[in-house]
Amino acid sequence: MRETIPAAHGHIPHAYAHFKEVFSEEGAARLPSHQAWDCAIDLLPNASPPWGRVYPLSLPEAKAMEDYIEAALAVGHIWPSTSPVAAGFFFVGKKDGGLRPCIDYRGLNTITISYPYPLPLVPAALEQLRGARFFMMLDLRSTYNLVRIHKGDEWKTAFHTTHGHYEYRVMPFSLTNAPVVFQALINGVFQDLLG
Question: CDD domains in the record, alphabetically (predicted)?
Answer without folding.
Answer: RT_LTR
